[in-house]
Amino acid sequence: MSVPLLLVGGGRMGEALLGGMLAAGRPAQDFAVAEVSAARRAALTATYPGVQVVEQPVAAEGVVLATKPNDIAAVAAAAAQAGAQRLLSVAAGITAAAIEAAAPLPVIRAMPNTPALVGAGVTAIAPGAHAGEDDLAWAEAILGAVGVVVRVKEAQLDAVTGVSGSGPAYVFLIAEALSDAGVLAGLPRDLANTLAFQTLLGSAQLLIDGDSPANLRAAVTSPGGTTAAGLRELERGGVRSAFLEAVMAATERSRELGSR
Ligand SMILES: NC(=O)C1=CN([C@@H]2O[C@H](COP(=O)(O)OP(=O)(O)OC[C@H]3O[C@@H](n4cnc5c(N)ncnc54)[C@H](O)[C@@H]3O)[C@@H](O)[C@H]2O)C=CC1
Ligand SMILES: O=C(O)[C@@H]1CCC=N1
């Protein structure tokens, strides 16, 4: 009997998707994870009772490919061999055409991010040549359980990777730096962490509620006040252009991963 959804690769992204879908209420029996690392299999088995954790792909209606980009073609072929009917790849860079060449199945490409683990991910999806509306709807149902899903053209996925796939790492770097700065200014680490992390959460919520970043920033910035003094230093440090360069570098790296 085939399982509804097999995840191949139970690493950071595979676990974020699995954990997110379980937290959203999908039953553990809906899932199997194929993972080559014995240590990872042991960890997943202990954390997610009821999920079938195996070494090699088992028969599944749909398969999420969540191994490193270099392994995706071989893993797609193995999943097809094991009876998969359609594939959802989360690998950075690897094109739908490359996956279709390894496995003659409908392929959806997706770029999720790790906040999927707490149901607050954002994923962009794009169809391969043989994927139809039902395949896109299938991918949306999987990824919609762990956050917002948007549809894009496949050519946009490299830029999506640069912004939101890699984006959580940029935000964690900001969190670290803001907390470190609090410590430098004399606050205990616990307090600095609470202040920095809750500031990120609250600011994100204001943005999600719909006002523009520029308006929200202006509302914090009193004439001649503390924020204007701080922002001046951030601009002097080139923060804005550092973000432009970071996203362009990540986008370019995603393109490189796809062209090897
Ligand atoms: N980590 C992230 O924030 C994001 C990662 N991705 C993509 O997700 C994919 C996985 O990335 P991570 O989870 O970060 O890597 P990872 O290294 O944490 O996980 C990959 C897992 O796949 C396993 N694996 C390797 N070959 C296998 C095989 N043949 N069969 C079964 N399991 C196998 C490894 O043992 C490992 O546990 C990559 O293609 C990456 O581009 C996409 C969006 C965000
Ligand atoms: O760093 C990477 O290559 C992966 C893809 C997006 C986030 N992590």
Automatic annotation (TrEMBL):
<keyword id="KW-0521">NADP</keyword>
<dbReference type="InterPro" id="IPR029036">
    <property type="entry name" value="P5CR_dimer"/>
</dbReference>
<feature type="domain" description="Pyrroline-5-carboxylate reductase catalytic N-terminal">
    <location>
        <begin position="7"/>
        <end position="93"/>
    </location>
</feature>
<dbReference type="Pfam" id="PF14748">
    <property type="entry name" value="P5CR_dimer"/>
</dbReference>
<dbReference type="InterPro" id="IPR000304">
    <property type="entry name" value="Pyrroline-COOH_reductase"/>
</dbReference>
<feature type="domain" description="Pyrroline-5-carboxylate reductase dimerisation">
    <location>
        <begin position="154"/>
        <end position="257"/>
    </location>
</feature>
<dbReference type="InterPro" id="IPR053790">
    <property type="entry name" value="P5CR-like_CS"/>
</dbReference>
<comment type="similarity">
    <text>Belongs to the pyrroline-5-carboxylate reductase family.</text>
</comment>
<comment type="function">
    <text>Catalyzes the reduction of 1-pyrroline-5-carboxylate (PCA) to L-proline.</text>
</comment>
<comment type="pathway">
    <text>Amino-acid biosynthesis; L-proline biosynthesis; L-proline from L-glutamate 5-semialdehyde: step 1/1.</text>
</comment>
<protein>
    <recommendedName>
        <fullName>Pyrroline-5-carboxylate reductase</fullName>
        <ecNumber>1.5.1.2</ecNumber>
    </recommendedName>
</protein>
<dbReference type="InterPro" id="IPR036291">
    <property type="entry name" value="NAD(P)-bd_dom_sf"/>
</dbReference>
<keyword id="KW-0963">Cytoplasm</keyword>
<dbReference type="Pfam" id="PF03807">
    <property type="entry name" value="F420_oxidored"/>
</dbReference>
<dbReference type="InterPro" id="IPR008927">
    <property type="entry name" value="6-PGluconate_DH-like_C_sf"/>
</dbReference>
<dbReference type="InterPro" id="IPR028939">
    <property type="entry name" value="P5C_Rdtase_cat_N"/>
</dbReference>
<keyword id="KW-0641">Proline biosynthesis</keyword>
<dbReference type="GO" id="GO:0004735">
    <property type="term" value="F:pyrroline-5-carboxylate reductase activity"/>
</dbReference>
<keyword id="KW-0560">Oxidoreductase</keyword>
<keyword id="KW-0028">Amino-acid biosynthesis</keyword>
